[in-house]
């Protein structure tokens, strides 16, 4: 099977590319040139880049490989969520709304929000990698 965007967009709590771009733009505007926020964003990108490697290989791995990598993938996903939360908490402490974080949802309330946060992390890593050309 060839993976196409339409397969993803039909999944619960999926984000459109336009929604992700808007969230990212809002995040970037709130971060601005705040050096502490930029450092937190950089840590998020590093973690998102590690996470996208797990995500992009998942459909390629055998069942055994998935079982072998699953604990590391889950730990990395947890770290992505922590990084999002740290950045949002910092921005809010600086008087910014961090509404993008609210849009991502609460993974404790709905498991799909956990997936949604992973999706957005992959988007951030995707954009970051495009800029490295």
Written account of the structure:
- It is a single chain.
- 76% of the residues lie in helices and 0% in strands.
- α3 packs across α6 and α4 crosses α6.
- With 133 residues, the protein is mainly α.
Compose a concise summary of this entry.
Helix content is about 75%, strand content about 0%. It is mostly helical. The chain is globular and about 45 Å long.
SSE layout:
Blueprint: H1 5-9, H2 17-31, H3 35-58, H4 63-93, H5 99-104, H6 111-130
Question: Can you tag this structure with a few keywords?
Answer:
mainly alpha; 133 residues; 76% helix; globular
* Average pLDDT taken over every residue: 95
Q: How many strands, which pairing sense, and closed or not: the largest β-sheet?
A: none
Calculate Rg over CA atoms. Answer: 15 Å
Quaternary status? single chain
Helix content: over 70%
Structural class: mainly alpha
User: How many strands?
Assistant: 0
Number of helices: 6
Give the N-terminus to C-terminus distance in angstroms: 29 Å
Strand coverage percent: under 5%
Q: Unreliable segments (pLDDT under 50, ≥5 consecutive)?
A: none
List the secondary-structure elements in sequence, H or E: HHHHHH
Overall shape: globular
């Amino acid at each position: 099977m060839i993976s196409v965007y339409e397969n993803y967009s039909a999944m619960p709590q999926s984000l459109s590319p336009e929604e992700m771009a808007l969230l990212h733009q809002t995040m970037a505007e709130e971060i601005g040139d705040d050096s502490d926020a930029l450092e937190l964003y950089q840590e998020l990108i590093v973690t998102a880049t590690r996470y996208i490697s797990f995500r992009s290989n998942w459909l390629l791995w055998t069942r055994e490989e998935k079982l072998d990598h699953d604990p590391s993938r889950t730990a990395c996903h947890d770290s992505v969520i922590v990084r999002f939360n740290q950045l949002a908490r910092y921005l809010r402490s600086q008087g910014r709304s961090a509404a993008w974080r609210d849009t991502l949802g609460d993974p404790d309330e709905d498991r799909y929000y956990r997936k949604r946060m992973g999706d957005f992390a992959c988007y951030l890593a995707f954009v970051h990698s495009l800029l490295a050309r």
